[in-house]
Amino acid sequence: MSWKNLLHVTGAVVGSAGISMLVAAMVSVIYQEWSTAGWIVVAALITTVIGFGLWKIFDLPGELSTREGFAAVALAWIAIGLLGSLPYLLTGSITNVTDAVFETVAGFTTTGSSIVPDPAALPHGILFWRSFTQWLGGMGIIVLSIAILPLLGMGAVQLARAESPGPTPDRLTPRFKETAKRLWIVYFALTGAQMLLLWIGDMNLFDAVNHSLTTLSTGGFSTNAGSLGAFTAYSQWVVIVFMILAGTSFAVHYRAIRTPGVYWRTNEIRVYLGVMAAAAAVMAIGTWGGPVHEVIRDAIFTAATLITTTGFGTADFGLWKPALQIMIVGLMFVGGMAGSTSGSIKIYRHEILIGSSRADVRRLIHPRGVFVTRIGKTPVKDTIVEAVQTFFMLYMVAFMTGSFALAVISSIWGPDLDIIATVSAVASSIGNVGPGLGSVGPTGNYLEIAAVGKWLLAGLMIVGRLEILPILILFNRESWRR
Question: In terms of pTM, does the model score above 0.90?
Fold first, then answer.
């Protein structure tokens, strides 16, 4: 691989992130937060100069190889996780480098884990930047660069393949640049629609904008410590609907503009909604006892926020029965549809794993039979089955290794996390969910975790958001051999 190619792509992405900081500076100006606005502009200038300087100096000579595309995406995401922390640090909103990077990575990866006890105490410009990082990371800042900036024309497919959530990026047109534009148009339109619906409810314009940015990205950052529990039932139902939409493939949304029936004809959607309905029913039964409408709403909201990996909260599920808490951790491994903004493993991969397991069992019963893995009635290629099995194995290895490492870190540097907090924090980080259980649950945060533990969890967030392979390629010695 060529460092020149990698730094060219990284520079373009970092430069794009720097320009986006100016939007947060404008918000500070609107609220007359002059000092905050000035420091955000400084952060934007530093980031933009570094980014576009690298892009210009290391000019891309030709099209990226697949290997270089994956490695470039991994390097770019690490870079924006570091430089994106400058608005927090320069404004003094977060004074610790580790905490600032953790909050930034949690934003761009749409994880939503936070070290901020009370978001409402932050300046408006910083609070907006916090939400805006999630919106940019939801559809993908590289895909955005491909869509609106003439910076990454060569190797666009390789880059999008490495960044897009799901097995493969769904192409709506022969040119991926046009596909990226259409996906972002749908993304922007849904964000605007939710903003208007929240605004006519009990949210002011600022809260409506921020929660729309963090819902469509399945990020989960809120403008107050109470998350969606601080707002009315109307706002919660609006967020439920848009969380479900955000967990659906945006390519399917685009196709549904002309043929709405595509929703129900897509097998993955039926499974996705079926799993969510079943989880909500179990939660409602397990928490039965209060007002019926509140129990049902909290159950549906919690099932949607976990499966779509959004991370909002209306109920403290950390206080629920142990059986429900086990199910909650399990739902962190589900995820929404491929091509959505949700994290975790994804419904599509679960369907393939179940289908291949069924085919393997049938081969044992009928050794001479020929059995093909299918999703619905559609056969799946063996190469895709193998790729999904490899991904699942790597995902579980990362989860188990991360859990062990966090347990060791907490026992040495403190605080000594119990097994529930440790396992749920790692599952939540790699699945880009946000809240865990115990001390890192919906009413807690990640502030007290040791610095080493925060760097570990931030790394797992990037690993989960990029779905492992780009990170492995970047840090694999064989990738750098001629």
Answer: yes
